[in-house]
Amino acid sequence: MTGEIRFVDRSLISGLCKIYRSSRFLALCSFLLISFISLPIPLSIVWLIQVLFLNISIIPISSSYLYIVFTIWSTMEVIFLTYQSYLYSKIQQKVPAPHVSSIERNRIVSNVLSTVKSLPHTLSKWFMDCPFQNIDRQSLIGWLAFAFYSKQLYELNDEEYEEIYSLVEKIETDYRLKITDDETTNTVSHMKHILDPVRVIFRPLAFYIFTDTFLNGILCSSIFYLRGYQFVRLVIIQILFDQFYK
Questions:
Q1: TM spans, by residue (predicted)?
Q2: Residue 95 gets which letter from DSSP?
Q3: Secondary structure of 213-227 in the HEC alphabet?
Q4: Helix H or strand E segment including 73
Q5: What is the DSSP string of 89-110?
């Protein structure tokens, strides 16, 4: 039987704390590994500050060759970090919702409801495993406001609010559900992919060069080659790709 995937809303710090409570050794190893992976970013910044603005050697290196190599690499790391920050700001921008008519919206709702085996269970998953009986009406309207209009509950106009409210009442009647009727509560958190901020962990350029170039590009290809696999170019996929991007 397939296991059910549970939603876990946990930060990096809380995850490390949970590991620490189960095993201090594993927590220490995890912390050292994360620190080692992230270390090139602060070191690059410190090195460039030392080279450009300070007359002291925070990181002393006597070899002129290593000095040049470290400076070039630190510059690349800082540029890559700036590029990552730019992409981070881009993906945080709010995407405008496509216009969907009320007829199309009702059709989508009907199709979804016809395929759902257990509506309370499905809603519980959208509300991060909150028991269905704890999901109040205003929280449900807030979730549908995200789903239909890409808005927060307080951003709905009167017409949009009434339409969603009527839909909730219809679902409640058709499926014989009892939804807590609290006009002031909207505190149950739910997943809203295009409204929630995207969590990003910045990793150094060295990490991607090691994983994508060495591990994935060289090591994995060599292992497949030694085991007798051959890389075959699928012409039909290439043709479709070329036609799509023409």
A1: 25-53, 65-83, 205-226
A2: P
A3: HHHHHHHHHHHHHHC
A4: helix 64-91
A5: HHHTSPPPPPP--HHHHHHHHH
- Rounded Cα distance between 169 and 178, Å, is 10
Structure-token pair, residue 85: 């920050």
The count of other CB atoms within 10 Å of the CB of residue 138 is: 21
- What b/e string do you get for 206-239 counting C-beta neighbours within 10 Å, with b at 16 or more? beeeeeeeeeeeeeeeeeeeeeeeeeeeeeeeee
pLDDT value of residue 75: 93
Question: What's the pLDDT score for residue 126?
Answer: 85
Phi, psi of 71, rounded to the nearest 5 degrees: -65, -45
Q: What angle do CA 131, 132, 133 make, to 5 degrees?
A: 95
User: Which position has the token pair 């809203």?
Assistant: 192
Collapsing DSSP to helix, strand or coil, 180 comes out as strand
Low-confidence ranges of the chain (pLDDT < 50): 1
For 71, what's the count of Cα atoms within 13 Å in the CB-facing half-sphere?
12
Measure Cα distances from 125 to 7, 116, 152, 178, 189 in Å: 8, 12, 19, 17, 11
Q: Report the pLDDT value the prediction gives residue 244, as an integer from 0 to 100.
A: 52
Residue with tokens 């994983």: 211
Residue type, 219: L
pLDDT recorded at residue 1? 40
Of 32, 37, 33, 30, give the one whose Cα is nearest residue 77: 37
Query: Distances in Å between the alpha carbon of 177 and those of 180, 184, 193, 195, 216?
Result: 10, 20, 26, 28, 51
Amino acid at 174: D
User: Which two structure tokens, joined as six digits, stand for 52?
Assistant: 């450009």
